[in-house]
TrEMBL record:
The keyword Iron-sulfur applies. SMART domains: NIL. Gene3D superfamilies: 3.30.70.20, 3.30.70.260. SUPFAM superfamilies: 4Fe-4S ferredoxins (SSF54862), ACT-like (SSF55021). The keyword Metal-binding applies. Keywords: 4Fe-4S, Electron transport, Iron, Iron-sulfur, Metal-binding, Repeat, Transport. PROSITE patterns: 4FE4S_FER_1, 4FE4S_FER_2. Residues 70-99, 100-128 form the 4Fe-4S ferredoxin-type domain. It comes from Methanobacterium veterum. It comes from the Archaea. InterPro entries: 4Fe4S_Fe-S-bd, 4Fe4S_Fe_S_CS, ACT-like_dom_sf, Fe-S_Ferredoxin, NIL_domain. This is 4Fe-4S binding protein. Pfam families: Fer4_21, NIL.
Length: 128
């Protein structure tokens, strides 16, 4: 599961994430991070048998957990495989295959929608 974790400056020095990993035996992959004196925001991928419990724990410690539910889909009949969307994807979820067609990886997509505005054919849509 992918999610945005947001937290206030009051808890930035607490070891909540490492405590969560140790206590709930989850895999925790940080995809993006922005931590400032005003607070923090992490894009993470969490997996394991106790994901729900780990989220409940983080929320009880003051972390806001916002699961990512949106991904982009390519409409094959509209796409001309121009590649305008590829360079804008911050997580490399869009790529060009060996036969020069555009591929979208739902597992990597974070639903940011940067690619949608670049498509001249309007072939990329954000879906739930």
């Amino acid at each position: 599961m992918k999610a945005w974790l947001k937290f206030s400056p009051d808890i930035t020095n607490n070891s909540i994430i490492s405590d969560t990993i140790k206590s709930y035996d989850i895999d925790f992959n940080i995809l993006r991070a922005n931590i400032t004196p005003k607070g923090g925001k992490l894009l993470v991928e969490i997996s394991g048998n106790q994901v729900t419990e780990s989220i409940e724990y983080m929320e009880s410690q003051g972390i806001s957990v916002d699961p990512i539910k949106k991904v982009v889909k390519k409409e094959e009949e509209k796409c001309v495989d121009c590649g305008a969307c590829v360079s804008l994807c911050p997580v490399k979820a869009i790529s060009i295959s060996d036969d020069w067609t555009i591929l979208v990886d739902d597992q990597l997509c974070i639903g940011c929608a940067f690619c949608t505005s670049s498509c001249p054919m309007k072939a990329i849509k954000v879906t739930e």
